[in-house]
Amino acid sequence: MAIAKKYLKTKPVCKVTFTVPADNAKKVAVVGDFNNWNAKKSALKKQKNGLFKGTFDLPKESSYEFKYIVDGEYINESEADRYQWNDYAGSENAVLEL
């Protein structure tokens, strides 16, 4: 898994690209507090090489809790900026710092 951040000079946003290796998966999405944990708003597209990838514009100078959903299973990003305990989920969420 990987996260790439590209800060724009002309806008107060960061283009964040999420990449998830999941050759055998049918659906992958990234959900978090930046999209109200809605998988329909953040499906990643499967590439020919088996990676799922998606780019989203997120406001700078913020932090966001998130997870991936791979065929219905919640998975944390191994390269997250940090992790935050979430009482509602009863587990840690990955955190993206922009």
UniProtKB/TrEMBL annotation:
<dbReference type="GO" id="GO:2001070">
    <property type="term" value="F:starch binding"/>
</dbReference>
<dbReference type="InterPro" id="IPR002044">
    <property type="entry name" value="CBM20"/>
</dbReference>
<dbReference type="Pfam" id="PF16561">
    <property type="entry name" value="AMPK1_CBM"/>
</dbReference>
<dbReference type="GO" id="GO:0016301">
    <property type="term" value="F:kinase activity"/>
</dbReference>
<keyword id="KW-0418">Kinase</keyword>
<feature type="domain" description="CBM20">
    <location>
        <begin position="8"/>
        <end position="98"/>
    </location>
</feature>
<dbReference type="InterPro" id="IPR013783">
    <property type="entry name" value="Ig-like_fold"/>
</dbReference>
<protein>
    <submittedName>
        <fullName>Glycogen recognition site of AMP-activated protein kinase</fullName>
    </submittedName>
</protein>
<dbReference type="InterPro" id="IPR032640">
    <property type="entry name" value="AMPK1_CBM"/>
</dbReference>
<dbReference type="InterPro" id="IPR014756">
    <property type="entry name" value="Ig_E-set"/>
</dbReference>
<keyword id="KW-0808">Transferase</keyword>
